[in-house]
Amino acid sequence: MTEKKKVLALMCERSVDVNDADLQNLSDLGVVKFPCSGMIQPLMIEAALKAGACGVVVTGCQIGDCFYREGNKLLMERLLGERPPGLKKNVDKRRVLGLWLSKLQKSRFIDDTKEFTNFVVNLK
Amino acid sequence: MYQEVLKQLNFITLEIEKLVNKITTNKYNPFYYHGALPQFYLWVLYLTGLLLFAYYIPTVDNAYLSKKMVNAWTSVDYITKTLPFGAIFRGMHRYAGDAMVITIILHMIRVWFTDRYRQYRWVQWTSGVLLLVLVLFIGQTGYYLVWDDRSLILTRMTVSSLTYLPVIGEPIKHWFLNGDLISNLTMSNFLFIHIGLSFSLLSFLWIHYVRMTRPVLTPPPAINYILVALVLLVVFIYPINSGQMADLNHQPTSFDIDWFFLFPYWLMAKVNMGVYWLFMLAGVVALTVVPWFVRSKPVEAAEVVTNKCTGCSLCYRDCPWQAIEMVPAPPTSRFKLLATVKPYRCTGCGVCVGACAFDAIDVPDLPDAKVLDQIKGLVGAT
């Protein structure tokens, strides 16, 4: 088994598209892809944090533009606690980052993820 | 090849939208309300149309003009010249129609380029083509109502194109003119077609929207103001004028063309009537079958895990495709309701999976357990 990743990215296939070359720069990042960000359950984020991840990055398309109509909006509302099911109260919200980026914004994804990783790894 | 081109076009749309997002932010990006734009113009058309309807008189009779009898043309003239703000409302009605066609085409192009028109969206696409044809036809009937030179020539051209059709042509012509000749009855029929079909748009719009939960029907107010302002701007730059009053004893030979609505007449004047009908029919059929140009991978519909479902209806509320229905649970169940998936509507997007707090619904392509395994494999504590 390869070494364990510190940060997990739960990504929508249609938003930022990272390939293996990009992942080599982001050695701390593990990626799980979903057909739509709306499929990401708060339970999955909790599971990742519980299993030992320092932080979780969630990516969806730009709000307003979802291939499956409103998946990203629903997920955003769930993460903000405006729509059930939400994150449990004991989840450290600082360890969850939502990025709403289109396919073209890969560089921003990489920058933000690196910054987030540094922040999260140093969190007590 | 076709798919490669579409992929590139998708990137171009994304690039344009990214640029617009920099100016407007994604909350006010008109591209994210592309379907709501024509819908908004429809409301503008209904309102301005209501005002015009109050003053419009659907007759062609000009035998008693010397006695100040009114007909369609003079009532439109009255609206334009005498009625306060009449010219503005008339202009808005006309240009909002043009704007509606532009926004519909924009909507169509975006949906096509971003690959959102096929498979489970075929109902939306085909009803959309029908709506477009209807809107174009309604727009044309609007041109007959003014009853100037152009209206007369358009009416006559329509009649000759209808009489070309075998068997059905004659009855349709009879319906269209409300008799065999152009008369007062013709004009009231035109008005009925124009208004009646406009309202029938709503029932087709219902089909257009029926498979969508929370369809986006209204852009934010800020965009609405801009949409109205754009129309008003054009109204002031290019005010509307009628031509000469139509004279049934006189045959006009040329007219100004409005490219949004009257292009079929341009074609009709250029080619043989048979070619014209063939071209029109082929155009509509080609547009309708666009979703089936590409072979699509069949969708694996989501499946409810019956013994885990609590009937909380969260997935039913969140499904963006109206694909989940809550039915009474079987008597053996502890719960009142049970979620069921309508497989012909399901897109396999998994939004229901994200909505379910009980792991009671699964997308066969990527089941919950597999996702959790992947997560644990990547970050696992062991």
Description of the molecule:
The complex is a heterodimer of chains A (124) and B (382). With 124 residues, chain A is an alpha/beta fold. Helix content of chain A is 32%, strand content 19%. Chain A contains four helices and four strands, in the order βαβαβαβα. Chain A has helices at 20-25, 42-50, 71-79, 106-121; strands at 7-12, 29-34, 55-60, 96-100. In chain B, the strands form two sheets. In chain B, strands 1-4 form a two-stranded antiparallel ribbon. With 382 residues, chain B is mainly α. In chain B, helix 3 (72-81) crosses helix 4 (86-113). Chain B is elongated, with a radius of gyration of 26 Å. The mean pLDDT of chain B is 91. The interface between A and B is large, with 43 and 46 residues.
Tell me the Rg of chain A in angstroms: 14 Å
Strand content of chain A: 15-25%
Report strand % of chain B. Answer: under 5%
In terms of per-residue confidence, which ranges of chain B show pLDDT below 50 for 5 or more consecutive residues?
none
CATH architecture of chain A: 3-Layer(aba) Sandwich
CATH level 3 topology of the largest domain in chain B: Cytochrome Bc1 Complex, Chain C
Biggest sheet of chain A, in brief? 4 strands, parallel
Give me the CATH architecture of the largest domain in chain B, please: Up-down Bundle
Number of domains of chain A: 1
Content-based structural category of chain B: mainly alpha
* Quaternary organization: heterodimer
